[in-house]
Amino acid sequence: AGRKLLDFRMNHAALAYAMTTLGAAMINNIFSFYYVKLFINKYKTSETAFHQSQLVFMLWNAINDPLFGYLQDTSTMRCCSQRRLSILYGAPLYSLTFLLPWFPWRSYYPGDWLSGLHLMVALCAFDGLLTFVLLAQCALFAEISSNHQNRLRLVQYSQVASLVGSSSILFCGVLSRNMEDFAAFQAFSVLVAVLSCGCMLYTGFYGQSRYDNRGCVQEGACVAEPPSPVSFAALRTLMWQILTNRDFQLFVIMNFFQVFMLAFLSNFTMIFTEHLIPADVLPPLAKSIMYGAGFICPQLLVLSSQGLLHSLGYYRIILYTFYLEAGLAALVLVLGPQHYYLLAFFLTVTMVLIQASFSLFGLPLADIIDTDLLTYRRSSPLSSMVFGTNALFTKPGQSLAPMMVLSILNQFGYEHLKDAGKSAAGGELEVLHSVMFYLVCLVPMCVAAMQALVWRLYSI
User: Fold this and answer.
1) 100 in a domain, yes or no?
2) Where does this one sit in the cell (predicted)?
3) 297-316 pLDDT per residue, tens
């Protein structure tokens, strides 16, 4: 009976944790997949304004994670120190900021400065609330239980939730014809925002951390001084302790490239597909299914790999995905761009592998948090700070990827050729398509190779 009660409590805790994953997956995937195309192709934002917005976003994106992490780990305010309350109060604003990009502030003309400001505000507001809510959820992952099997259960529940939430991409693509029907896209975005907010509020009401009552001695934790008052000196000391962990350093390097690849694929898969794969080979519905599969199948892959997670462990599985990504990219590069179905398959599989392996990254970070807790004899773990410090160095990849790729494409005429279609000069279009193909193959191949070299040194 006691065992059943413990299982019931753990299942309920996992469900509460996963509801934020469900809500976040609904809106994050749509945001990251559509915002670049929206501002570049529909709002006609200039390359200069786009880069300026990304630079501001990159700075804010890097700073807010350790800042919010430190606040959540050391603050005496319950809305910050208790994980579920951070989610409860942050979720409505998080869902609201998701709607910012999809409603233009006026009818934009090409190169309109206001569209650039709109992009900057949308990116910074959305990421700020995303950080506040998801840092609290990441901390919950490490703090619900220190048992490895229980953490795998959290991963399992989270992947089911992410699977359901990621279907928003598929429905959005089908209902709006990949954003061609913009009014339908806007209506669907409002519906998704409301649903996602409701899901995250469930976590806000029912999610529980073992360390919610700060100042009490927790089971399995060593007695130490209570959290110190918020100060720059304390922040500097705690960050130095985290940064000197060699496994944390290796993880951050590997994770930076993973975040870069996620942004690269999320922002440009639709653009690459429309240019490199003719419409008579893959009609719009097939492309919508392809895009949806890129976000849905990662969760199916993780759920079907639970046995491998138990037998091989997350370390080897992550390493093997890097080998597979590099191998597939090399194969497609050798065969060439004329194999359209293979190219579509490669883009989808690469998205799936990168998203699936990224879903496991909470496990090594949780182990790093446990090691830090024991090493420095803390009364409670610095869960949010570890996740936030990791984000300080990895989040810039979200901005660097679109900036670098857009700059490369515009050097070969993308800004002028993106809407030209068949009326464009054949030679110019062929050169642009060739550049796109090399980006599709060489970026995943080189990045995966570097990740494998770094990850092999990880020791926990």
Assistant:
1) yes
2) Membrane
3) 888 898 888 888 888 989 99
Q: Could you tell me the sign of the dihedral formed by the alpha carbons of 38, 42, 43, 45, in that order?
A: positive
Bigger pLDDT: 152 or 1? 152
SS3 content of the chain, % helix, strand, coil (to 5): 80, 0, 20
**Position 222 in a domain:** no
Q: Specify the number of domains making up the chain.
A: 2
For residue 67, CA distances in Å to 74, 149, 180, 263, 313 come to: 11, 31, 39, 23, 32
Q: Please tell me the pTM assigned to this model.
A: 0.75
Is pLDDT above 80 for 211?
no
Q: Which of 161, 184, 212 lies at the terminal end of a domain, its last residue?
A: 212
Same domain, 449 and 353: yes
- Per mean pLDDT, which of 53-67, 85-99, 230-244 is the most reliable? 85-99
Alpha-carbon distance 148 to 79, whole Å?
28
- DSSP assignment string, 275-299: HHS-TTTS-HHHHHHHHHHHHHHHH
